[in-house]
Automatic annotation (TrEMBL):
<dbReference type="Pfam" id="PF00528">
    <property type="entry name" value="BPD_transp_1"/>
</dbReference>
<protein>
    <submittedName>
        <fullName>Sugar ABC transporter permease</fullName>
    </submittedName>
</protein>
<feature type="region of interest" description="Disordered">
    <location>
        <begin position="1"/>
        <end position="35"/>
    </location>
</feature>
<feature type="transmembrane region" description="Helical">
    <location>
        <begin position="103"/>
        <end position="126"/>
    </location>
</feature>
<feature type="transmembrane region" description="Helical">
    <location>
        <begin position="183"/>
        <end position="211"/>
    </location>
</feature>
<feature type="transmembrane region" description="Helical">
    <location>
        <begin position="42"/>
        <end position="61"/>
    </location>
</feature>
<feature type="transmembrane region" description="Helical">
    <location>
        <begin position="138"/>
        <end position="159"/>
    </location>
</feature>
<feature type="transmembrane region" description="Helical">
    <location>
        <begin position="291"/>
        <end position="315"/>
    </location>
</feature>
<feature type="transmembrane region" description="Helical">
    <location>
        <begin position="244"/>
        <end position="264"/>
    </location>
</feature>
<keyword id="KW-1003">Cell membrane</keyword>
<dbReference type="InterPro" id="IPR051393">
    <property type="entry name" value="ABC_transporter_permease"/>
</dbReference>
<feature type="compositionally biased region" description="Low complexity">
    <location>
        <begin position="8"/>
        <end position="28"/>
    </location>
</feature>
<comment type="similarity">
    <text>Belongs to the binding-protein-dependent transport system permease family.</text>
</comment>
<keyword id="KW-0472">Membrane</keyword>
<keyword id="KW-0813">Transport</keyword>
<dbReference type="InterPro" id="IPR035906">
    <property type="entry name" value="MetI-like_sf"/>
</dbReference>
<dbReference type="InterPro" id="IPR000515">
    <property type="entry name" value="MetI-like"/>
</dbReference>
């Protein structure tokens, strides 16, 4: 049959494609334009922008100003560029070198300061008898002011105080806890750990909330001892929590012991309990040498950065080996 030229050509059914069914149960996915996709990509950055702006203005910018200020002079050379003179003076000052040695001591004691709340959190998680009471008792020192804690332990550790009286009662001689240069720093660090490990304990307990209980059950069925369970199950499972506690504990030990040092020893005896933060306060607050204090602050920041990165790398290696 001939086709009239005026009749429009009919497309094949295959070329027309399947018809769209729009029924009561059909879903119609709207197409997103370029503007919508771009807005989705930019949304996280927009949400992070206020926090990043606050960090930039209140953290990074003052840090850069402090580093720049450390290359200027004090006194008669106030505001003048002096190059590395402040750093040369720092590393020639016996008090600052003693403070750096104490930083090394803190780094060596850091695993102990992390292990104590970690083990206590493990016992609480395993529900030892009285675990609810222990949780409150362990956290209580964290709410006390460092000045109050220092004053309490000054009374307890005095040469004629109750601790030496107890030692005398069992036949041991009195110990000059805060007056002996070989003992005083260990005492202050021990008091600091006692006063602050409650926060690390809470962080560990939060990490235990994410631990797969079936792993502990499997270890118990296999007859694993508590040390084996901690090494092969708990430590690998809480690796990120441990990294966080290591970094925050280190920062706290290097930057939050001023109150205890000021109340308990004032940097003595013989400068044996100096730490960089106490040295910074002496230079800035008493000797009016802000440029030298800025140089000491820069050195302290670099120490915390390097030690933190090393601790994290060592911890990751230990977890992989476990």
């Amino acid at each position: 049959m001939p086709v009239d030229e005026a009749t429009p050509a009919v497309r094949p059914a295959a070329a027309a494609g399947p018809p769209r069914r729009v029924g009561s149960g059909a879903r119609v996915t709207p197409r997103r334009g370029r503007g919508g996709r771009r807005a989705e990509r930019l949304a996280p950055y927009v949400l992070l922008a206020p926090a990043l702006l606050i960090l930039l203005l209140l953290r990074f910018w003052p840090l850069l100003l402090g580093v720049n200020f450390s290359f200027t002079g004090d006194g008669d050379r106030d505001g003048l560029a002096v190059g590395l003179d402040n750093y040369r003076e720092l590393f020639g000052d016996p008090l600052f070198l003693g403070a750096l040695r104490n930083v090394g001591l803190l780094v060596l004691l850091l695993p102990v300061a992390v292990a104590i709340p970690g083990l206590l959190a493990t016992f609480i998680y395993l529900r030892v008898p009285g675990h609810r009471l222990y949780r409150s008792v362990y956290f209580f020192p964290a709410v006390l002011s460092p000045v109050i804690v220092g004053a309490i332990f000054n009374l307890l550790l005095a040469f004629d105080g109750p601790l030496n009286a107890l030692l005398g009662g069992v036949g041991l001689g009195p110990v000059d806890w805060l007056g002996d240069p070989d003992v005083a720093m260990f005492v202050v660090v021990g008091v600091h750990v006692w006063a602050t490990f409650g926060m690390a304990l809470v962080v560990f307990l939060a990490g235990f909330a994410t631990l797969d209980a079936s792993l502990l059950d499997a270890a118990r069925v296999d007859g694993a001892s508590l040390p084996q369970t901690i090494r092969h199950v708990i430590v690998p499972s809480l690796s990120r929590t441990i990294q966080f506690v290591v970094v925050t504990t280190m920062i706290g030990m290097l930057t939050s012991m001023f109150g205890l040092l000021y109340v308990m020893t004032s940097g003595g005896p013989e400068g044996s309990t100096y730490l960089p933060e106490y040295y910074i306060w002496i230079q800035q607050g008493q000797l009016n040498r802000p440029a030298l204090a800025s140089a000491a602050s820069t050195v302290l920041f670099l120490i915390m950065l390097v030690v933190g990165l090393l601790q994290i790398s060592l911890l990751r290696r230990a977890v992989r080996e476990a």
